[in-house]
Design brief:
With about 180 residues, the protein is of the alpha+beta class. It has one domain: Glutaredoxin, CATH 3.40.30. It contains five helices and eight strands. A hairpin with a 4-residue loop joins strand 6 and strand 7. Helix 2 runs parallel beside helix 5. The longest helix is centred in the first third of the chain and has 19 residues. The radius of gyration is 14 Å and the shape is globular.
């Protein structure tokens, strides 16, 4: 479990994973840096799909160690997050390291890795790819599968949330 300084529509607050999980499953997605091409695409995709996540009782949080001084603006930018979900600062990628979600050649930056965490704090699904285009689909598919497998509650579990149970090789050191 973790807490981190975050922004929702440019409003600062402290995101607390344990508190968020009390309300439902959480998609935690790590991204390399705010206001970079791939990260812009990924944030826009999560923003556009946020109602689908909410329909399953899930929330979304984005975390990054890159360009953290720009997260307030990134969180409200109408072409990125659009104020629909929070983004949090992960200085030095400390949280990302506990999830094995850092870049192999730049370990102080988050890789592009998404996790679906069940209400019991266990990782239900993981998707690791520097290409941002499938993260939303992979997390929605996992959420639907978890919902179906748990009688609609989304609490079926595989592994503890932090640290991640299985290490996954990270793609490259390219930014977002």
């Amino acid at each position: 479990m973790f807490s981190a300084p975050a922004f929702l529509a440019a409003q600062p607050f402290t995101f607390d994973l344990k508190a968020a999980l009390a309300k439902g499953p959480v998609v935690v997605y790590f991204f390399p840096a705010a206001f970079t091409p791939g990260c812009n695409v990924e944030a826009a995709a999560f923003s556009q799909a946020i109602d689908k996540f909410k329909a399953h009782g899930a929330s979304v949080i984005g975390l990054t160690a890159g360009n953290i001084g720009q997260l307030a603006e990134f969180s409200k930018d109408t072409e990125k997050c659009a104020g629909k979900f929070p983004v949090a600062a992960d200085e030095g990628a400390k949280i990302a390291k506990t999830f094995d979600a850092t870049m192999m050649l730049k370990p102080d930056l988050s890789s592009r890795t998404s996790y679906l965490i069940g209400q019991d704090g266990r990782i239900l699904a993981e998707y690791d790819a520097m290409n941002p285009n499938q993260h939303v689909k992979q997390m929605l598919d996992a959420l639907q599968a978890a919902h179906a497998g748990a009688g609609g509650k989304g609490t079926a579990s595989k592994t503890p949330a932090a640290p991640a149970a299985k290490p996954s090789p990270k793609s490259s050191a390219k930014g977002g």
